[in-house]
Structures are given as C-alpha cells and as structure tokens.
From TrEMBL:
UniProt name for this protein: Cadherin domain-containing protein
Entry GO terms, CC: plasma membrane
Function: Potential calcium-dependent cell-adhesion protein. May be involved in the establishment and maintenance of specific neuronal connections in the brain.
GO biological process assignments: homophilic cell adhesion via plasma membrane adhesion molecules
Domain of life: Eukaryota
UniProt KW Cell membrane keyword: yes
Length: 813
C-alpha cells in the first residue's frame, strides 16, 4: 500500500511538472503575440513560480523595486504577486481551481499596470486541474420501486455523480456490483454527460425476493483514479402493468432573466392508462443538484414548472435537469427539461480606475497618458458592448485599449494659469435597449512649470519726491505679478541700473527685495539733482528663473530752501560775520532828473525753481520815501517824481527782495544816492560820507602821527618835502587824477531821454590805494593861507578820498 502511494505521488508530481512546462511554453508563445498567458497547477504552495513576467514584458528591475509595476485583478483577492527582486510572477496563496473557476478551465485574467511609462498589459493564467476531488452523489442511498410485472429490458435512470474536477480528471464511468437480475447501462445526454441507467435483465418475483441492495460506483479519469459510491435499494412492488408516459422526452423553454418569482416556465404532462391510484400521476424532480431546487419548483399535480428564485443570466444561462412522473403503483417515467435564460440589459457598465497620474505637469506633451480605466458590463451581446466618452470641458480624450481597458490622454497642451485642475466625467454606456450607463469623475490636477515671467503693473513708473527728504523715506512701491505658483510665482526685486549707470543711480535709492518698495538712501537736493531714473528688475524663484524690468523715473520737487541772493549792489568783504561793514555803493542823480529817471537796478537770483524762484522787489526804507520807487518784478530803482531843491543831497535806500515760496524768504540791498548836477558838486557829499565812515581810523592815525612826530620830527619833515616835490611834478588836476574818471557815475550826452525804456548796462570796478612808493602821486599840495578853518576838513576828506576804497558805477555809452 505505501509503495503504491509513493508511485502515485511520483506520477502526480510528474504530471505537475509537465503541466508547468507546458504553461511556460504557452506563456512564451503568447508573449510573442502581444498577450501573456501562463498556466500553473492548482494546489501549489504559496510562492510557487508561474512565469518570468519582467523578462516577458521587457521590464527593468529598478522599476519593479520602486513600485512602478503592480497587478490589478477584477476580484478582491490577489492570487498572484510580482516578486520585486526577480520580476517573477508567483502564487500569493494556495489556489483551489474548483473554488475559483468552477467548470471553466481558464478563469484567471488580470492586468499588469506599468506606471513609467503608463501602460497596461493583459495576462491570463490557466489553472491546471489536479485530480483532487472524488465523484460524489447527493444522497447516501437511492431508493427504487420496481413492479414485479415490469418486463425485462426496462430501464431505470439513476442519479448522476458530480466531480468538481475538469478534463480528464472529471467523471469517466460508472460500475455496478454484480447481480443476475440487473445490469448497468450508460446513456449520453444532449449535454454530453453520461446518465447511468439500471437495466432489468429478468422478470422479478416479489414473492421470491422483495428487495435488492446494489452498490453504484462512479470512477473519474484521473491518475490515480478517484471514485465515489452510493447504495441502490430496490423494492419490488405489486403488479402495475401501465407506467406513466410523458408527452415529450425533452421539454424546452426560453425565459428572460428578469422573470418575476413564481412565473410559469413550462408545464409537463404524463399520462397513465391505468385506473384508480395506479393511473394517478404525480410529478417531482429527479436527481438534480440542490441549487436547481432553489431556483425552480414543480407542482406535483399539474406539472407546472415555476421560478422559485430570481434568475440571473450572468451566473448561469442554461439549466438542464430531469422530472419524474410516478403513478400510484410506483411506475415512473422520466423526461428532461432544458431552460435557456435570455439576457436582459439589467447591468450597467462598471468603471474601475486602475491608475491616475495626478498631478501632471503643465508642459506634458500631447498624448500623455494620465489615467487607465477598466470598463466591464456583465451582460452579453449588445447589452455587454460598452462605449466610453468624456463629459466636460477639458483638454483630455479617451482612447480604447484591448480587453475593455481605456486610456485617458492629453488632447492638447495644458496651461495651469488658465486651469489648475480639470474635472471630467467618464461616461460608459452599453448598447442595450434601453441603454444603461454609469459614470465616474476624474479630477486631474495640473502642476506648475515656470513658463511665465513676472509682469509689472506699469512699464514705466514716475515718482515725485520733495527735496530735503529724510533718509529712508518711501519713494514708490512697484509691483510685478507672476501667473505661476509656488516658488515659480514668488517675485523678488532689485536695482538693475539707472540713467547715470548702476553706480551713479544706486546710491540714491534702494529697493526692498520682497515688497518692491523704493526708499531714498539719503536726502535729495533739487539744486544738485532734479531727476534720475533707475531700472528695477523683478525675478521669480523658478529654475531657470525668469525676469522683467521696469523703469522708475524719480522727479525731485523743489522746496523753498534758498533765500534770494543780491548780486548788485554787491556786498563788500567787510560784510562777513564779525567784520566791520564796508561802504555801500552810491549813485549820482542830477537834480534836474524828472519822474521815471533810472537810478539803478537791483540784481538778485534765487537757486530754487518755479514759484520759489519768482522774485519781487519792494522799497522798505528811504530818506525820501516819495522820491523813489522800485519795480515790483524788474528791480529797477527810478525816481517817482521830479527831484526838487528841497530834497536832501544824500539819500539812503533799502530794498527787500522776496521769493514766492511758502514761507517766503528774502534778502535786502542798500543803495546810497547823491543828488548833484555834476561830479564836482557831489564831491563834498562823498567826502563827508567817507570821513564819517573812516572816523575811528582817522583818530587812531592822528595819535600815531603825533607820537611819531614827537619821536622823529625830522623824519616826518623829510617825508613831507619829498611828497610835495612829487606833487609838483605830477601837475594839476591831481585830485581828479587820483580819483580816476571811473570812480563816479555821470550821465553823458548819450543818456536816453526816456528813463523808463530799460536797464542800462553796467560794469563795476574797484579803486585801491596806491602802494607806499606811489604816495607822491597821491600827495596833495598844501592848502593856501587864505583857506578858511573848515578847509582842514576838506583836506582830510581829499586824503580819505584818495586813499580810501569805494565801489562805484560807471555808465557805459
């Protein structure tokens, strides 16, 4: 017994090896034609080799290790896995073919989904049957009643055994224990199955033997063969010479799968020629599986066959079973019922998303696969034919693939700035009448690519800043927008250059990198820089970065920070702070001057601009206020009326120059006017003015001379004699020659009659005292003896006039 078990085990293993070899050869053959097919024996342990999937599909091992390849099956249970290191397809658990496939030989179909690049491959695995199931009967014993008058040759159908295995391992034959009264015959059904029948070989005599017990054995074709037995118990009944007879041997019906429960499928009819109880026929199921009894019910009296449960074409589309008619005497007849289930469009398509590549970069080329779908309709024929389409506005299209798979690809270029995500509805519709459909939504996010440069709100900016601003004051805020997202849309700013170059303009302003705010680096001065331009560059954070520039022109606004400056009458050097005042310029006006006579012109400038530089002139102080007037805008000093004899010979005028700023700034100019017809007439007035100006110096000089005279009278006498000698050689008029013709302002014959016509051209000269060696040229002759006492004052005046310093004006013809 142990030796036979070992032999049978080796035979079984040999069959498994052959089946595995055949499966590998079949897989290689199918891979060459675009679809992989493998086969593997059932009951193999977990991790058993099925096929080299990576090699057959040309996949790289790094892609397997990174999880870029996965197996997608229709059911929830994964029967196969992909070894990440070797690329081999192996079993995930022990596979029972009978539980998984039933009567279908090739039942495992799955897809291999490759992510990079996105693609799907169809793989079919045939589970090779192993003879691991013995034939079985639904009952432990079969009871038959046979009348004693039944003639020899009568046949009695017996229950067929069931074998879950397929092919050569399925049920092969039946055997009956030896008995002279009965033999076993085989009848082949329309479906190809063998129906065992008990054949009566000779007439029975109930009085001799009222019952028989036989054993029916069912044997399959496996190696080693498996068998199953059932006991057949035969009861010999009293005579009933007519058995029921069905009107048909085979009853056929075609019903829809959505037939309501309790609906009539068909009605069988059997007749019996006997009378009484022997002629009363009752109907029942023959030896049929229990699952058939759940779906159908037969009325024992009428023979009506009705549905007991809902029918489903997708589960089984044809049922074949037997009905029995039995009379009251125990005689029976049998018929076969064949019911075809027609398909109804009662299943909507099922959509399964196998893979979704989201987000997808916006620069993905047209035709990029973004999703792989699996669509299945459990109906058959046109009811199971499915078409898919996309609903919604999106640059996507759907392409049919093999095996009910579909690919969603990009139909045109993507632009994240226009749409950051796309929502489309996949609609699957069958061809039934009416058509059924189902849908699922796909949400595809678009990732950003740095394809947009920052854009300024304005190509050129203008900013206005008042001068004397504080350092760090805000000048302007520029802003650039980038349509990209994340780092690609994050904008930073800096100075790119300016009108005077980056080195010349950059020190004036700076820009904040994040906000784009321009700040003044130092206080601006309108008088030094009235305007300047800088270029601001905006750059995003992409790689590579994109940038753009904008020009910012800054205009410095003037403030009234400069007072008017008087050019004439010019102030002498003595007007510096802490020094004594220098004598102011003077003008000589003839007493015959009429109203409008041009006396002088006050010339002033202002470094500011605009209203801050508009100057106005006003006479604020005068010896004779009614005698002179000054032009409001021209600064020309003219006589307001004719000069009279009563007017003082010396006139002092003070004019103020104001600008139009807020607040206004001003400066003053002082002018001395001498009223005289000629220069000789004006000399006394000038001498008194000079003497008065040099009084402190003359007094000091007097004491010095006196001290020197006491110490060296002889030396002073020698000097006096030398000076007198030089004066005599110089000749008259020594006074005028000392003063010079340009020290006084006189009106010549060409002086215009109309004093209001305009401003006369002027030139200004400075008369400086001669050096010590030139003293004899400036020496004066001694006064005559007949001079009055006040001639001594005149002598001092002449001396100061010669050696003093005056600023005078000369009229140019």
């Amino acid at each position: 017994g142990e030796a036979r078990v070992a032999v049978d085990s080796r035979r079984g293993w040999g069959r498994r090896q052959r089946a595995l070899l055949w499966g590998v050869l079949l897989a290689v053959w199918e891979a060459a034609w675009g679809q992989l097919r493998y086969s593997v024996p059932e009951e193999m342990p977990k991790g058993s080799f099925v096929g080299d999937l990576a090699k057959d599909l040309g996949l790289q091992l790094p892609a397997l290790q990174d999880g870029g390849v996965r197996i997608v099956s229709e059911g929830r249970t994964q029967y196969f896995v992909l070894h990440g290191k070797t690329g081999h397809l192996v079993t995930a658990e022990r596979i029972d073919r009978e539980q998984l496939c039933g009567s279908v030989q090739q039942c495992v179909l799955f897809e291999v989904l490759v992510h990079s690049p996105l693609n799907v491959f169809h793989v079919e695995v045939a589970i090779v049957d192993v003879n691991d199931n013995s034939p079985t009967f639904s009952k432990a014993a079969l009871d038959l009643e046979i009348g004693e008058l039944i003639p020899p040759g009568a046949r009695f159908p017996l229950e067929m055994a069931r074998d879950a295995d397929v092919g050569s391992n399925s049920l092969l034959t039946y055997q009956l224990t030896s008995n002279p009264s009965f033999t076993l015959a085989m009848k082949e059904n329309p479906g190809g199955k063998k129906q065992p029948e008990l054949v009566l070989e000779k007439a029975l005599d109930r009085e001799k033997q009222s019952s028989f017990e036989l054993v029916l054995m069912a044997v399959d074709g496996g190696d080693p063969a498996r068998s199953g037995t059932v006991q057949v118990r035969i009861n010999v009944t009293d005579a009933n010479d007519n058995s029921p007879v069905f009107s048909k041997r085979i009853y056929e019906a075609r019903v829809a799968e959505n037939l309501p429960v309790g609906s009539l499928v068909l009605q069988v009819l059997a007749t019996d020629a006997d009378a009484g109880s022997n002629g009363k026929v009752s109907y029942s199921f023959g030896n049929i599986p229990e699952d058939f009894r759940v779906l159908f019910a037969v009325d024992s009296e009428s023979g009506e066959l009705r549905t007991a449960s809902p029918l489903n074409f997708e589960e089984k589309h044809k049922y074949i079973f037997g009905l029995e008619a039995r009379d009251g005497g125990g005689l029976t007849d049998h018929c076969e019922v064949e019911i075809d289930i027609t398909d109804e469009n009662d299943n909507a398509p099922e959509i399964t998303i196998l893979s979704l590549s989201s987000p997808v970069p916006e620069d993905a080329p047209t035709g990029t696969v973004v999703a792989v779908l699996k669509v299945r309709d459990r109906d058959s024929g046109e009811n199971g034919q499915v078409s898919c389409e996309l609903s919604g506005e999106a640059p996507l299209s759907i392409v049919a693939s093999s095996g009910g798979s579909y690919k969603v690809v990009t139909a045109s270029a993507l632009d994240r700035e226009q749409a950051s995500e796309h929502r489309v509805t996949v609609v699957a519709r069958d061809r039934g009448r009416p058509a059924l459909w189902s849908s699922t939504e796909l949400v595809l996010e678009v990732s950003d690519v740095n394809d947009n440069a920052p854009v300024f709100e304005e190509a050129a900016y203008s900013a206005y800043v008042a001068e004397n601003n504080a350092a760090g004051a805000l000048v302007l805020r520029v802003q650039a927008r980038d349509a990209d997202a994340g780092a690609n849309g994050r904008v930073s700013y800096w100075l790119a250059g300016g009108s005077a170059g980056a080195a010349g303009a950059a020190p004036l302003v700076s820009v904040e990198a994040r906000s784009g705010a321009l700040y003044a680096q130092r206080s601006l001065d309108y008088e030094q820089c009235r305007e300047f331009a800088v270029e601001v560059r905006a750059q995003d954070g992409g790689s590579p970065a994109r940038s753009s520039t904008a020009t910012v022109r800054v205009f410095v606004l003037d403030r009234n920070d400069n007072a008017p400056r008087v050019l004439w009458p010019a102030a002498g050097p003595g007007e510096a702070p802490g020094a004594a005042s220098a004598p102011a310029p003077f003008e000589v006006v003839p007493r015959s001057a009429e109203a409008g006579y041009l006396v002088a012109k006050v010339v002033a400038v202002d470094a500011d601009a605009g209203r801050n530089a508009w100057l106005s002139y006003e006479l604020v102080q005068a010896t004779e206020p009614a005698l002179f007037r000054v032009g409001l805008h021209s600064g020309e000093v003219r006589t307001a009326r004719a000069v009279s004899e009563r007017d003082a010979a010396k006139q002092r005028l003070v004019a103020v120059v104001k600008d139009h700023g807020q607040p206004a700034l001003s400066a003053t100019a002082t002018l001395h006017v001498v009223l005289a017809e000629s220069l000789q007439e004006a000399l006394p007035e000038l001498s008194e003015r000079a003497a008065g100006a040099d009084a402190p110096a003359a007094e000091l000089q007097f004491y010095l001379v006196l001290a020197l005279a006491l110490l060296s009278a002889l030396f002073l006498l020698s000097v006096a004699l030398a000076v007198l000698a030089r004066l005599r050689r110089a000749g008259p008029p020594a006074v005028l020659r000392c003063l010079g013709a340009q020290r006084f302002s006189v009106a010549g014959a060409a002086f215009p009659a109309d004093f209001c016509e305009g401003t006369l051209p002027y030139s200004y000269n400075l008369c400086v005292a001669a050096p010590a060696r030139a003293v004899p040229e400036a020496a004066w002759p001694p006064p005559p003896l007949f001079l009055r006492h006040d001639s001594y004052k005149n002598w001092n005046w002449w001396r100061s006039l010669c050696f003093g310093t005056y600023a005078v004006k000369t009229v140019m013809p």
